[in-house]
Amino acid sequence: MRLFIFILFSVSLGFQSTINSEAQNTIEADRFVVSLEKRIPSDPDTGAFVIVNEIQEWYCKETAIIICDMWDQHWCKGASERVAEMAPFMNNVITTARNRGILIVHAPSQCMDYYKNHPARKLGQKYKSKKAKNLISNNLLDSEKYAFWPVDQKDGGCDDDPQCKQGQPWTKQTVMLEISDRDAISDSGIEIAGLFEARGIRNVILMGVHENMCIIGRSFGLRNMVRLGLNVVLMRDLTDTMYNSTQWPVVSHFTGNSLMTEYIEKYVCPTMLSCDFTGQRQFRFKEDDRPVIAFIIAENEYRANQTLPEFAHELLLTKGVSCEFALGKPVYTGEGIHNIENLKILTDADLAVIQVRRRALPSPGMALLRQYVSSGKPVLGLRTASHAFALNKPLPATGSQASAGKGKDIYSLEQWPEFDRDILGGNYQDHYGALKTGINYSVVPGMESHPLFKGINTDDFTGPVAPLYSLYKNRPLRSPDVQVLLTGKIPDKPDEPVLWINNRRNGKTIYTSMGHWEDWNMEQFRKIMFNAVDYLFNNGN
User: Fold this and answer.
1) Residues 198-202: contacts with CB within 8 Å, 24+ apart?
2) How many whole angstroms separate alpha carbon 304 and alpha carbon 519?
3) pLDDT tens digits for 149-192?
4) How much is the pLDDT for 401?
5) How far apart are CA 458 and CA 524, in angstroms?
6) What does DSSP say about strands 482-489 and 440-443: parallel, antiparallel, or unpaired?
7) Could you read off the pLDDT of 391-437 as tens digits, one per residue?
8) So where are the chain's domains?
9) What average pLDDT does this structure show over 194-218?
């Protein structure tokens, strides 16, 4: 079997192909590629974070998966039900991983007596790490010392009504997770660390329950694996949080889970998705009926990888949505600039928010984008979306810039220059730059009561004078179905449309040429963006 390396989909098809070369099989079968999502401190803005994607190639023999506290029964009925729902998907992941030679560690805490005669338990207790004895701690990581915990869990986090009586009813791991004799069983960080040292394990994936308690805090949890210097990752779609939605911040249980994942990506470690192993859609709880917003971000000028995640965070708290990210490199140079990771989120998305600048896409990714648009689902485009998939120079016919992928998974790159005209309804023709005055924004007469301006004072609406702040040239708009809502004016130049709705044949698009990081500091712009989400989710009502 040969590993397909499918960069765009985070190697989602990686375990399914045969090859003729035994030598090549030896090389590639030992490796796989993961797509990691993390949030790092912003250089220009103290206290802010940017969301980034990192592609890593791992050796199977240097990788382990720890399954945390997937018990046969939890004291909380809702928690038990979610474990049972998650377990079959998790078993698919660990079966695939085990077959690739990845070590599986089952860690159902306080259940070791049940497995005392199991070969996997004997392997789990074979080693003890002297290093771990000195490093394992219940304390916060240094990176967390000034962090704000995202959910109130003081009541235990049970989301049932009435709340379940707390206790320890578990006796073993759920039987829906297969335990092989090749696996290990342990609930001790010292034992697990010793096994990892003996096996040369460098990469560790944690899955299971619960993010805000055992996943992060056990002796084998995220914090302690980080302390041990391991390359640790949370599989974010195969986990849960103990959070009662009646407690602060009073959001749904699943939004509480999303907020906890954000915290981990900022302060503890990166995350990944199960589709890196399975090639299937990411896991989603059946009761998680939140609308899904897919944020597609790949630009290097306007800090979209900071401003849009901040926008998404506020949407989580106020609109009851789920936010997913497909990320490209923020820089516009070098190898891999045309890879936008995780575009598969478009399959389940209810709204696509796009701020991309001059990228081509590998053909499977472009197909996903075209499929989403043709389905009639809404699009919200910001600033560089007008030239998102149109390069300003010819794509080379050969070389690394002409294709993306690795091995047989080499895909030609595609542009979509008509995206501006056909989907956004625009006519981007460069911009007026180096402005000495702010842009004066005006509501088109008769549009003052439009839903996008709900709660907005538009009488004094002037953009700042800031680096890279410019007025896009879009006159004349090319679609007959465009409804212009806002224009921008600078001295001695004709006014330009800056906000409009394109009533596509089978869907709606809202586009604005605003989207500079300074725009997000303006109350009017922020309200327009929140109103735009409401408008598109409500089909223009």
Assistant:
1) 198/126, 198/127, 199/61, 199/64, 199/103, 200/61, 200/62, 201/62, 201/63, 201/64, 201/103, 201/230, 202/58, 202/59, 202/62, 202/63, 202/230, 202/231
2) 11
3) 999 999 999 999 999 999 999 999 999 999 999 999 999 999 99
4) 60
5) 7
6) antiparallel
7) 887 776 655 566 665 545 667 889 999 999 999 999 999 999 888 89
8) 60-278, 292-428+498-537
9) 98
Q: 14: helix, coil or strand?
A: coil
Residue with tokens 């805490």: 109
Mean pLDDT of 309-325: 97
Q: How far apart are CA 205 and CA 499, in angstroms?
A: 44
356 pLDDT higher than 60 = yes
Find out whether 12 and 278 touch, Cβ atoms under 8 Å. Answer: yes
- Check if the beta carbon of residue 41 is closer than 8 Å to that of residue 58: no
Instruction: Return the half-sphere exposure (C-beta side, CA atoms, 13 A cut-off) of residue 389.
Output: 25
Say if 60-278 and 292-428+498-537 have the same CATH topology. yes
Helix (H) or strand (E) holding 50: strand 49-59
Distances from the Cα of 246 to the Cαs of 153, 158, 214, in angstroms?
10, 10, 22
Stretch among 233-247, 469-483, 513-527 having the lowest mean pLDDT: 469-483
Q: What is the phi/psi pair of residue 501, to 5°?
A: -115, 130
pLDDT band at 200 (very low <50, low <70, confident <90, very high): very high
**How far, in Å, CA of 463 to CA of 471, rounded?**
10
Structure tokens at 55: 């592609």
Q: Which fold has domain 60-278?
A: Rossmann fold (3.40.50)
SS3 24: helix
pTM (two decimals): 0.91
340, β-bridge pairs: 328
- What pLDDT is recorded for position 28? 53
The answer for residues whose C-beta is within 8 angstroms of residue 67's C-beta and 6 or more apart is 90, 94, 104, 105, 106, 107, 108, 173, 177, 207, 208
317, 234, 248: which is closest to 276 by C-alpha?
234
CATH number of 292-428+498-537: 3.40.50
DSSP structural state of residue 521: G
In the DSSP assignment, the letter for residue 120 is H
